[in-house]
Design goal:
Organism: Thermomonospora umbrina
Keywords: Signal
Protein name: Secreted protein
Strand content: under 5%
Largest sheet: none
Helix content: 40-55%
Order of helices and strands: HHH
Shape: extended
């Protein structure tokens, strides 16, 4: 078997494997049941950031240049 043919077959096998992995991942996400949320309860997310590192990161210049996060529009 020629070297070029081996390279082509290896690439094809890698592409097929990648497609299969993405397909399985997408199927797993689609089959999940949505979690019912109580509209009266807030959604809480806990962060494990080091407060000292956060303070060092947010310099005066970064705070001045910060842009607000986009917020959803509710009708």
């Amino acid at each position: 078997m020629s070297r070029q043919r081996i390279i082509v077959l290896t690439g094809a096998a890698a592409a097929i494997a990648a497609i299969a992995i993405v397909g399985f991942a997408a199927t797993g996400q689609a089959e999940r049941e949505p979690v019912e949320q109580d509209p009266g309860k807030p959604i809480v997310h806990h962060l494990q950031e080091n407060p000292e590192q956060v303070q060092r990161y947010w310099t005066e210049e970064r705070m001045r240049d910060a842009q607000p996060a986009p917020m959803p529009h509710v009708e």
